[in-house]
Give the backbone structure.
Amino acid sequence: MNYSRFLLCLFYLLLLLVVACDDEVIEPLPPPPTYAVNLEGVFMVATHQDNTSFGLAECADSLWTGYAEFRLVDSLAATATQFGGEYYRVYSSDMASGPFFEDPSMGGYNACYMNADSTIFPNGANGEGQLRLANSDGALYWAGASQWGEVYFMDSVRVAEQELYLVYQNDYAERFRVTLTRLDTLFWPLNLRVGQ
């Protein structure tokens, strides 16, 4: 066999393969998602307070939308009952730019009690309450008590990429269903779940 003829045939074969594949566009894979390392940040929030135990018709599945902010605080000073992990003060506001008021109800009191002022939020206007959202290796729970001594219990935690769904209640029969949507490009950590 003629060596030059073999190379010529190989060249044409490769050329045919290139032409045949030329019109196929190969899309690069999207980058993998980046997950937040903690819960700090400002998020869009939609909060339902769905209790009717007080005879308040406006509390029956009332809805408030706005913004929530989680601020990491010193875990040593957070509460008297500690189990390790991170502690967050929770704030709410009508606007992403603030002003933010400390509000563990994440707007639930605004929905139920008709745009309440911060003095009746669970932690009061001046930090009279000590409720903190706690994260112990992905286990979310409420630590401390409100200004009236109420304690809060986490009922449900669900993560869906940039949305975090929480259901929690207090021992005064107020129940909150919250959807938090991230404003950045990060995803919520996948290990978030109900704690303690």
About this structure: Confidence is low (pLDDT under 50) at residues 76-82. The beta strands are 41-49, 62-73, 86-93, 101-102, 132-136, 139-143, 152-160, 163-170, 175-182, 193-194.
